[in-house]
């Protein structure tokens, strides 16, 4: 099960992001890092940035990429963990 279905995450303050040719680029000026996200990561990031919960993102990911619910939940959970490790998201 993906985190708490009602729990939300948001991009950490101080980050800038832009979408270029379907990929999201995140600029972490404080950490002097640039992150480029693939299609799935970009999809999840844009949904987080718009305020959606992990559960609703997984449901949208399942439809968008035609994967199983289990795969969508696992991919969403894993990616949010990676974003947390990189210091790019925080809990709402």
Keywords summarizing the entry:
alpha+beta; Outer Surface Protein A, domain 3; single chain
Word description of this protein:
The chain is an alpha+beta fold and 92 residues long. The protein has a single domain, classed as Outer Surface Protein A, domain 3 (Alpha-Beta Complex), CATH 3.90.930. 43% of the residues lie in helices and 24% in strands. It contains 3 helices and 5 strands. The chain has a 3-stranded antiparallel β-sheet with strand order 2-3-4, with helices on one face. Strands 1-5 form a two-stranded antiparallel ribbon. α1 runs antiparallel to α2 and α2 (54-65) crosses α3 (69-85). The radius of gyration is 13 Å and the shape is globular. The mean pLDDT is 91.
Question: In brief, what are we looking at here?
Answer:
With 92 residues, the protein is of the alpha+beta class.
Shape: globular
- Quaternary state of this entry equals single chain
Per CATH, the class reads Alpha Beta
Tell me the series of helices and strands, N- to C-terminal.
EEEEHHHE
Mean pLDDT: 91
Write the layout of secondary structure elements.
Blueprint: E1 9-11, E2 15-20, E3 23-28, E4 33-36, H1 39-49, H2 54-65, H3 69-85, E5 89-91
Antiparallel strand pairs: 1-5, 2-3, 3-4
């Amino acid at each position: 099960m993906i985190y708490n279905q009602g729990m939300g995450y948001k991009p950490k303050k101080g980050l800038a992001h832009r979408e270029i040719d379907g990929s999201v680029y995140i600029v972490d000026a404080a950490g002097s890092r640039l992150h480029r996200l693939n299609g799935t990561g970009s999809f999840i990031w844009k949904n987080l940035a718009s305020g959606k919960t992990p559960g609703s993102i997984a449901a949208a990911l399942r439809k968008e990429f035609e994967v199983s619910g289990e795969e969508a939940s696992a991919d969403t959970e894993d990616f949010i963990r990676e974003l947390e490790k990189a210091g790019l998201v925080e809990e709402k």
